[in-house]
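Folding follows sequence. Below is one example:
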Amino acid sequence: MRRLLDRVDEAGGGLSAPAAGLVADAFQLDGGSRGPLEDLEPGRVVDRYRITRRVGRGGMATVYEGVRSDGVYSSQVALKVLRRGLDTEDVVRRFLDERQILSTLRHPNIAQLLDGGSLEDGRPYLVMELVEGERITDHADRLRLGVSERLDLFLQVAEAVSAAHRQLVVHRDIKPSNVLVDGDGRVSLLDFGIAKLLGGDAERTAGGVWALTPDYASPEQLSGLPITTASDVYQLGLLLRELLTGIRPRLDPDRERPLLSTRPSRLATREVTGSPPPAERASARRTVPQKLAGALGGDLDLIVAMAVRREPPERYPSVDELAADVRRFLKGQPVRAHPESTGYRLRKLARRNPALLPAVAVVVLLVTGFIATLATQNRRLERERDLAREATIRAQETQDFLVDVLGSPDPWRPADPERGKNISVVDALELSTTRVRTELADQPELRSALLATIGRVMMGLDRPGEAESLLREAVATREAAGDDSSAAISEALRHLADALSQQDRLDTAHTVLERRLALEEARRPADGDRLGSVLLQLAELQSLTGTRDSAERLAERAVAVVRSSGGGTLAALLQLAADIYRSNDHLERSEAAARESAEILRRRGVGGATLAVTLHSLAQTLGLRGQVSEARRLFDTTLVLLDATLGPDDANTISVRNNYAVLLGNAGDNAGAERLGRDVLAAAIRRHGGEGHSRVADAFQNLAAYILRQGRYREAVELTQRAEAIYRAVVPGSPRIGITLLSRTEIELRAGEYRAAARSAAEAAAIFAGRLPVASAPVLMADCRLGRALLELGQRREAVALLGGVVERLPKSQLVAIHRAECEETVAAAGLAVPPTSAIDASR
């Protein structure tokens, strides 16, 4: 019984997990003297991980330390396993919700999800980054940190929570035990076990217990009201208060939080009326450095008080606003939690610049006009404050609208019950678009922002046509409201150009980007990150259309702009520049840019999908340079990261797996390429719900190439026919149809069907004409194979005339080695001189 009471005391006087689990744990119902039966013994292997020790046990799960044991690479991890006896449908669902939520979050201050699965008995588990550290409060007290150092730690927590909110995730359980600090002073936010994706109603655990930690719960959590990001603001206020004062919040059943009305500065210096009785005081109070008491007070009191106000609208409107006030305090600037007054601002100015005090006094005495100037300045600051608050309110309205639309079973409440339970993401987005247009007709800025957001989501769902329509409407809405130069319209133009590019409408995309470039070049002061972004977009577009020199100049300018401005997007731009250099055959420059990008990310502690993108770019370049072994290792690492963070059916993961297959095929490992190609095909079909999508046709086409090289002609023909049928149905007139015809031509040439090969190659060339550069690989291969067919048919004059043009273009081409050899063989058979291989080609 004492162990059960101890567990209740640890929970702050209430139960934050199903009571049955607490009872089973307290009395060791399954394990007798050896401990609960659910414990995984050291040495046990779970999938590819070997358990080394148990780290801790919570209300829902047990956490173990483990190491990867499959020999791919060695790393320490944390395994979070659902506790036996709690594997009810409700609890398992919440555990799986945590895994889904963590898969969307990537931030250096959020513990990274690496893997997941289920034990033999069906209990799910998560594999996460192992965080070696101590509670934030214990860390601060052990090192006797001062106020500014404690606030720096708090700001790391706030940044992590803000990153979660940007992904529409509310943590709902922020407390010291869920915030660890490692030996380098890096904060990690843990345990999203009761977090909520896309808002929604309050949620009960099994047995009717609210999913919360009572002492740290917000008033709306305790009352069962809908939870928003304001709940996390409240809990951050409690965390800040405890970090500064050493006082742990206690929920008193007879009085409503008696300690919250007392300022932190008073808590740090004396016992508080209504504080816990002496018997409880030891667990509620920690020892903090005495020097903190004198440093607290004033603005810090007001910041904490505003964060923990009972009514959500009275708190800071967002975590970013709370963090901004803390930063202003650290800089000695006025905070927004303080009532506005001229005297307050003057005191702040004097503290920041004590040497100015005599001069200010003289000016005040001698120049009465100073009062008027000060009043004018004050009004300007008020206007700036109002604009900032309006921006914050718009951001909150945007978030709340999306939470309302996407977090409910059906946005049309009440709606058809059947559809409400089975509504898809696309259905929800289409319904939300209708609501945006009708409900926000008198709010053009918010309407435009939401339309642009939905458009970007449609892009992620491989629906560029719908995305284009929404993004055009977003731009037009802002223009009608008189906005033609804001950062928001620049971002909308960026995504509009991407949607057009995905539809192969490159000329229109170029026009959109030229407008965006003019906008950013005219901006004062310039925004280095956005200017670099549009320059890179234009470079990518020009690379696709064959304007290689111009593409590289734009890429170099983009990197230089961001590097000189100290922008935060340098790593991303270097990775994109590496792709452009590679497409232009400048492989050494591509490798250097990709390696610098990876090094920047590693220095910043960035991993997951962000690092995977750069490693993928480097792997492609190394493969072309002939460094196949290192390229394969990088591809393996990239896929481990992407499978764990995005999943095997994500578009990025599919693309990387496809490019890995291309590497193996070009290296002669066609069996290995086929295995990966089949994985790509299966994932593409799952992602797109069947075979009616161009990405599925791409997978059929690539798989056909690997099978063809193994001599299985009939199977390869069937795959290319399936790819061609899909292309003709969903992207009529696309150059992709010509690619399938090239594969058919290769098969027909090998089978000796030269007339059929000539017809297929000529049709492919006609499809490519005017759509692709004349020196591009598909156009050259169409001409080479048509020339080969004509030679075999005895039409030597026509073949020589056609292949003469190939000879002129071959040195500037981007052909891989196997296709270059085929073209050179055909040119030689026509009696023409084979052009020398360039130094760049030799490096592949």
Notes: The mean pLDDT is 77. The longest strand covers residues 49-57. Residues 369-406 form the longest helix (38 residues). Residues 787 and 802 are 6 Å apart (CA to CA).
